[in-house]
Amino acid sequence: MYVDGLRVGQNTYVATELSGMDQVQILKGPASINFGLVAPGGMVNLVTKRPEAESFARASMTYGSYSLKEGTFDLNYSPNNSEKGAFRLNGRISDQDDPTDYVYFKNFYISPSYNFDLGDNTDLSVIASYQHREYIRQQGLPVIGTLKDNPNGSIDRSLYIGDPNFGKYEADVYRTGYTFKHTFDNGWNFNQNFAVQKTEMDGKAVFARTGSNFWAKDKQGEIDYTTISRRNNSRHQVIDNLSFAIDNRLNKQFDLYGMQHDINIGVDAFQEKSDYTNDKYDIGDLNIYNPVYGQNVTLKQNVRDINRLKYLGLYLRDRIQLNDQLLLSLSGRQDWAQTQTTSLVTGNASKQSDNAFTGSASVMYTLNDIVAPYVSYATSFTPNSGTDVNSNPFKPEKGKQVEVGMKLQSPDQRIQGAIAWYDLKRQNVLVTDTANSGYKVQRGEQLTRGIETELSAEILEGLKLTAAYTYTIDAEISKDANASNVGKALDNIPEHAYSLSARYKFDPSSKLGWYVGGGFRGETYKTVDGLDVHVPGYTVFDTEAGYDAERWGAQLAIRNLFDKDYYTGALNENLVTLGNPRQINFTVKFNY
Description:
It is a multi-pass membrane protein. The chain has no helices and 34 strands. The protein is mainly beta. It has a 22-stranded antiparallel β-barrel. The protein is globular.
């Protein structure tokens, strides 16, 4: 995850607030050079809201299912009718329960930003934000009793298998930074992005045991599938994380020997320190048909580590328009990374230094106004901080991707689409340690091949369609130190994933008036942990209707219209995660 082109800390365990973002950029293909250390399969870059040239005041209120209450505001003041010297303040507050008993989410977010007026050739924006989250996390339901028959009957979908008295998480995230740009008289542009982020999190959770220890045995030593074991598997996690990120880049566009160049030369750096406590507690078992909460917990093991991650990267990227039809993109970067983990309980320390050269190359040929085929190749390098359950440091993740595709566009640009075949290999990938809750393990190599398509079209005036489809040909562990893992399917990757949505505006000549929309999304079955666990596929439907006036608007949105029961995936071979039931939200918004 990146924010404003800068990496977000690895060990924060807090989702980034999207209401403060102006754009969510989902970049596929060889993006590792454009944004530093990311896997070539794709990445997400969030662009924060900045001051604009026009003053405005916007607010919204939403009420919905499961006691949802949400309010947002967005204020922009521009004294000079310009982005320079403008100030913006936006925020959100929300409170919502969950279909699962005892689970809830509360959130508060606020973000001020200011653009300095430093002349025509210089831009400086300062952005800050504060976020507070409080929640009890959903922990899934047993496979036996949901996907598979339980001799004692089906499990209530609202069952909470943790303990509400030992289950609350609270987190505070403070972030501040700036973006600076200066244009020189010779045509060169200098861009600098900087951010510092501090995350404080304190959370408790009761987890079920994993593997063959999941089900508790009765007094006769038999499993009757009524009680899950939680012995020695509760956690008190405390995180104090501080990270710094900076990116410096020189850019210029120029012609050379009849070819147009767009060149970027830069250096970026990242530093993170994370004080991580993961104490282990013991708690009694839970009868899933007659749960008793509020049981005593007993401390069994102290775990406290200091994780440090540093990296420095140099990069060069050039987009070369060879002629009117042929576009060549070349890039390369050299990275130096260092990770260090120190146990404050045992005093043991591990340190690892790595470096790598990575790059990408792509060629796109515009056949005509409609079709532009392309081919690309990219490699990646990503350091991993932390250790496994045995205090062994993690190796850096490496990857490579080949992609062949075609971009499509109608002459009037009302229809746009793309289709691509990809072959992605990732080595040393971090995955959940299913035998030890709260820890990670590394797989030797993962192989993923597939085809992706996407389409957006305005087929009639006022009617817009968006569609996407992914066919996963292969998704498996191709190499591993444990030979028994080779050939196993990657967790929670469906063979087919698809979506289709449409929106119709009754008066397409105006931004105001009535509109309606709807669509569906779904996936085919998934394999979990390479075992005999298959999460069934699903298709759910969504719909919306609304009206926009000059100063106000209203919208009614329904997700999972037909209230279908489904599962989104699984945590391991014993636990599945639930899809949301029908949710109805009504929003009123105001504009000034």
